[in-house]
Design goal:
Radius of gyration: 42 Å
Helix content: 25-40%
Distance between the termini: 156 Å
Order of helices and strands: HHEHEEEEEHEEEEEEH
Largest sheet: 5 strands, mixed
Shape: elongated
Strand content: 15-25%
CATH architecture of one domain: 2-Layer Sandwich
Structural class: alpha/beta
Length: 213
């Protein structure tokens, strides 16, 4: 057994020098081993070029990514007129980017149906000019307005495919709508016709001869 005196005799203690030399060697070996493990775990230096799949059908895009050992997740959908349903609109990371194997690619696809938009609160609550501006801003299209008896340019109703709509009811964006607005001339004509009917009713009442009483 090495005595304390012998252990601290640096010039004569061979075990001390061996341990002193071995310690940094062990530390360096551990560090190199960890770095090598990290390289294997993270696939350091192994990158894959992400394929550009914009415009491709979803199934075809998934096959392209599968060949590269990449995963896919559909995270959003949108509607773009003129593009087939299910086609890829966006991808993240974008095509051409370098990623590690097993990376997840996030996709946005085109929907089959145009999204629906709620009719704003304009029926019996807005002028024609205001209603027209709000509807066009939401993506709707408008025909020539339908004139009905009422206050001039006041919106009394909205029609879609000959169906009366209500405030808050949802219809496809870019639908063609018809606003039913008031026309005071029609209102005046209506009042004149009513007065004529009332007058004619009074003139045609039978005259009762009460002389026999």
């Amino acid at each position: 057994m090495i005595s304390l005196k012998d252990f601290f005799s640096f010039k004569k203690n061979r075990a001390f020098w061996l341990n002193l030399i071995a310690m940094p060697i062990v530390v360096i070996a551990i560090v190199l081993g960890v770095l090598h493990w990290l390289d294997d775990y993270t696939h350091h230096g192994q990158s894959i070029i992400v394929p550009n799949v914009k415009g491709l059908p979803l199934k075809q895009a998934e096959n392209e990514f599968s060949k590269k050992n990449l995963k896919t997740v559909v995270v959003d959908s949108n509607y773009v007129k003129g593009i087939p349903a299910g086609a890829i609109l966006e991808q993240k990371p974008m095509g051409g980017a370098k990623v590690k194997t097993g990376r997840t690619i996030y996709l946005t696809i085109n929907t089959a149906e145009m999204p629906k938009v709620a009719i704003p609160d304009i029926i019996d609550n807005s002028s024609y000019r205001q209603a027209e501006a709000r509807l066009r801003a939401l993506g709707f299209k408008l025909t020539a307005p339908e004139l009905i008896s009422g206050e001039k340019d006041w919106v009394y109703g909205i029609k879609y495919q000959d169906k009366e709509l209500l405030n808050g009811e949802k219809v496809p964006r870019e639908s063609v709508l018809t606003l039913c607005i008031g026309d005071d001339e029609l209102k005046a004509d209506s009042l004149n016709v009513d007065s004529l009917i009332v007058g004619s009713t009074k003139s045609t009442d039978p005259v009762i001869d009460e002389s026999w009483f």
